[in-house]
Amino acid sequence: MTGSRLQQRVEMLLKEAFEKRPDLFPISLKVESDQSIRIILDGDSGVNLQDCIEISRAVEHQLDREEFDFSLEVSSAGATAPLELPRQYRKNLGRTLEVKTEELEVKGTLEAVSASDITLSWKTREPKPIGKGKHTVRKEEVIPFSEIEKAKVVLKF
């Protein structure tokens, strides 16, 4: 049962660390049976190496090596990692996202984020209502978080 005790201890230490750094938040915490600890974090303004070091030290320096023979890895959510928490969307306002739901797959600009949904907008070419040819139309879709199966930021180079 060492694994579950270690998990509880790490969760408590992370809670304390994130109280001191409210701009950072955990995406995932995994404590494996071999006592390897893997923490992925994100931040309202992104995450840098110093942030990872700070969270790593907050956990590592408070764990007793006599009690737990652990390894620790702290990393940031990658630029291409899917968005998992509603909080991650706010820092990506104005960026292009690819969002997949059961009925829809859309690529658009993240215009708004509320407590329950996001708003994407994009331009598309559609046939003119009267006459021949096409014209550019601006579309907008409000997508509830509960319906999002996968969302990721589209990187532009």
Automatic annotation (TrEMBL):
Q: Where is the Ribosome maturation factor RimP N-terminal domain?
A: 23-79
> What function is annotated for this protein?
Required for maturation of 30S ribosomal subunits.
As for subcellular location, the record says: Cytoplasm
Q: Which Gene3D superfamilies match?
A: RimP-like superfamily, N-terminal
Q: Where is the Ribosome maturation factor RimP C-terminal domain?
A: 84-157
Pfam families on file: DUF150_C (PF17384), RimP_N (PF02576)
The protein's name: Ribosome maturation factor RimP
Q: Which family does it belong to?
A: Belongs to the RimP family.
Instruction: Indicate the secretion signal residues.
Output: none
What are the protein's UniProt keywords?
Answer: Cytoplasm, Ribosome biogenesis
Note the HAMAP family from the entry: RimP (MF_01077)
Q: Which gene encodes it?
A: rimP
